[in-house]
């Protein structure tokens, strides 16, 4: 082994030429140069491309051997602005298997034009960017021949590695730490578009990291929140026709080895050493004022058994797929999918339901939850899930929808339903149908297989037959309990005779693993309704509404008042336009309905997967379930959820 330290005087003219206009660079000490091994020996093996992205911390020996192998076990040049000869000792002697390690430690921008340094970098079989202060790397190397050589080195199919700051500078955009400090996750989340979040660009241009922002020491320093902020600011103003940027964080105990074709695998020194892939689609077009507000951000874990494809960010065999919400300066994990249902509202006080009937209602709600959850848990769409849940309720005699529907004044069952897709904002609705077993399916057919949004009466019945939906004799919907209710109504001319099921509409709202919202509602209307009365359930924006990024809503109650308040749409507008939380928006809306004389309730689902339930002085049959959780049901107004 040969080691020598070389101190090279600066060429003042070159230095002055490289200092940006208006800037003054204090006289810096000469660069440091260390050599371990022999620089003139042949490279033993073939050199091939690759990137090694190391999360910092203790050196990952297996990953370094991969890197050395990519360099043909030849000559490694290390560049740094902080660390010196100890890296050469480690690489050449402790790990071994290479011909030489040569280290250059920069102390000024001017040194990025030094001919000897540039010559050695051009000849390197592999280049390693050490850790340290990434702001120095940006200041010293951006727009210099060093940056040009790094880009050319990778483009020529030679390997490059970096750890800590040496990884953090490799993405298309990077956090520069230009304010002489490292921003924390709470600081970044509190003001993601503020001056402290110094996002830089036009530095390194590696094709495999195009559209990517990197970060290191990831799990150990709780950096997920700040990577959200990095990605949000980095892609602000990004053209809509370009894909969202990706965040890539690497734990200290992990190193991501990227092959020339973009396939990347983890070398880990601990079982939970991962890379974290942040999908930037949930961090686009955000408000640039105040704390980060992102309702749903997908994060995928890359472990030793996973394969990450760069630059797309696709992960085969991920160790986890999680969703997070950022709000008010904090991030929380949210469920992969979530579902909420209702079975109508009424004056449902404890003791008003016999125990066996309460048990039956809860069982019916539970069955509907499980039907919708089965769709979502297999990766199905929220639109399919809400339809599945509502179909179960339409077949249950206890609920005022489908088979358990109430009678009109003329003694008929006339059914209404609606469904809406939050992703496309397509919707379908039917009113006054009489022969379709599942009105929610007919509403879906209107949405998917017609140019219209709503069909009513005989025309809707004909369309149902033409589309091949299941038809039943009108007697299918008749139940003795509902018939007796009509007879009592005829005697007393009451708008409804069962106070425990005053408004029996059923509905469901859901969000799926792709973050798409959907809502569906189905009802038999009001006992004794006349003249083709239609309530809020099939009216998009009144009893049913869904819009991605805001909310999905299904309502139940005195429909005329929900129509007048545009209740379902109002909830989403309060979230989207006024910035209210979903729970506050739902409660404010139901109180607005009550203020003009309406009673009832509504359920809403937000993009963070947390449902809201709002009731104005009434009970409501309701339930919820999310990925990894248990089905929960509630009936009484004062009933609390298990969490």
TrEMBL record:
Going by the UniProt record, its keywords in alphabetical order are: Autocatalytic cleavage, Hydrolase, Protease, Serine protease, Signal
Question: Quick check: keyword Protease in the entry?
Answer: yes
The organism encoding this protein is Sphingopyxis witflariensis
- Which InterPro entries does this entry report, sorted A to Z? Class_I_gatase-like, Ntn_hydrolases_N, Peptidase_S51, Peptidase_T2
SUPFAM superfamilies associated with the record: Class I glutamine amidotransferase-like, N-terminal nucleophile aminohydrolases (Ntn hydrolases)
User: Where does the entry annotate site (Cleavage)?
Assistant: 504-505
State the similarity comment. Belongs to the peptidase S51 family.
* GO MF annotation, one: hydrolase activity, acting on carbon-nitrogen (but not peptide) bonds, in linear amides
Q: Which domain of life is it from?
A: Bacteria
Active-site residues, as the UniProt record annotates them: 505
Summarize where substrate binds, as residue positions: 533-536, 556-559
* Pfam families for the chain: Asparaginase_2, Peptidase_S51
One biological-process term from Gene Ontology?
Answer: proteolysis
Q: What is the name of this protein?
A: Isoaspartyl peptidase
Per the UniProt entry, the signal peptide is: 1-23
């Amino acid at each position: 082994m040969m080691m020598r330290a070389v101190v090279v005087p600066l060429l003042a003219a070159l230095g002055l030429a490289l200092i940006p206009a208006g800037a003054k660079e204090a006289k810096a000490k000469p660069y440091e140069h260390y050599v371990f091994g022999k620089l003139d020996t042949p490279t033993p093996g073939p050199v091939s491309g690759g990137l090694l992205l190391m999360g910092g911390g203790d050196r990952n020996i297996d990953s370094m051997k991969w890197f050395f192998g990519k360099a043909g076990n030849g000559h490694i040049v290390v560049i740094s602005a902080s660390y010196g000869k100890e890296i050469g000792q480690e690489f050449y002697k402790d790990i071994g298997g290479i011909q030489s390690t040569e280290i250059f430690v920069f102390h000024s921008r001017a040194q990025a034009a030094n001919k000897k340094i540039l010559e050695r970098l051009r000849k390197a079989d592999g280049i390693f960017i050490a850790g340290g202060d990434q702001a120095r790397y940006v200041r010293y190397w951006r727009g210099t021949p060093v940056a040009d050589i790094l880009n050319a080195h990778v483009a020529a199919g030679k390997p490059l590695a970096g750890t800590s700051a040496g990884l953090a500078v490799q993405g298309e955009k990077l956090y520069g730490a230009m304010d002489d400090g490292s921003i924390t996750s709470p600081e970044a989340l509190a003001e993601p578009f503020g001056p402290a979040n110094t996002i830089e660009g036009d530095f390194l241009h590696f094709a495999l990291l195009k559209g990517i922002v990197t970060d290191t020491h990831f799990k150990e320093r709780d950096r997920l929140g700040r990577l959200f902020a990095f990605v949000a600011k980095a892609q602000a103003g990004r053209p809509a026709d370009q894909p969202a940027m990706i965040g890539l964080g690497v734990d200290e105990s992990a190193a991501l080895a990227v092959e020339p074709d973009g396939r990347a695998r983890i070398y880990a020194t601990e079982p939970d050493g991962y890379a974290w892939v942040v999908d930037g689609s949930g961090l686009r077009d955000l408000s640039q004022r105040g704390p980060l507000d992102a309702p749903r951000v997908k994060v995928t874990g890359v472990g030793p058994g996973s394969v990450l494809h760069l630059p797309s960010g696709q992960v085969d065999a991920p160790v986890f797929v999680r969703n997070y919400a950022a709000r008010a300066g904090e991030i929380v994990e949210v469920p992969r999918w979530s579902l909420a249902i209702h079975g109508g509202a009424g004056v449902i006080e404890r003791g008003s339901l016999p125990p066996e009937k309460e048990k039956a209602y809860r069982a019916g709600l539970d069955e509907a939850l499980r039907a919708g959850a089965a769709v979502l848990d297999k990766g199905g769409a929220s639109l399919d899930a809400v339809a599945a849940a509502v179909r179960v309720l339409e077949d249950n005699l206890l609920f005022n929808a489908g088979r358990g529907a109430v009678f009109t004044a003329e003694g008929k069952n006339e059914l209404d339903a609606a469904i809406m897709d939050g992703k496309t904002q397509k919707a379908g609705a039917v009113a006054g149908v009489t022969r379709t077993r599942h009105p929610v399916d007919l509403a879906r057919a209107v949405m998917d297989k017609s140019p219209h949004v709503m069909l009513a009466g005989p025309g809707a019945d004909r369309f149902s037959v033409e589309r091949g939906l299941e038809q039943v004799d009108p007697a299918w919907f008749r139940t003795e309990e509902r018939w007796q209710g009509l007879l009592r109504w005829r005697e007393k001319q009451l708008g409804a005779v069962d106070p425990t099921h005053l408004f029996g509409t059923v509905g469901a709202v859901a969000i799926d693993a792709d973050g798409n919202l959907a809502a569906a509602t189905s009802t038999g209307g009001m006992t004794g309704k006349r003249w083709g009365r239609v309530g809020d359930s099939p009216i998009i924006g009144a009893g049913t509404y869904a819009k991605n990024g805001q909310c999905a809503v299904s309502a139940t109650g005195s429909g005329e008042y929900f129509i007048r308040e545009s209740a379902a749409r109002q909830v989403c507008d309060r979230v989207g336009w006024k910035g209210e939380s979903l729970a506050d928006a739902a409660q404010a809306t139901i109180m607005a309905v009550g203020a003009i004389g309406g009673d009832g309730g509504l359920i809403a689902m937000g993009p963070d997967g947390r449902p809201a339930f709002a009731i104005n002085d009434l009970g409501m049959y309701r339930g919820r379930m999310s990925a990894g959780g248990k089905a929960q049901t509630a009936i009484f107004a004062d009933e609390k959820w298990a969490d």
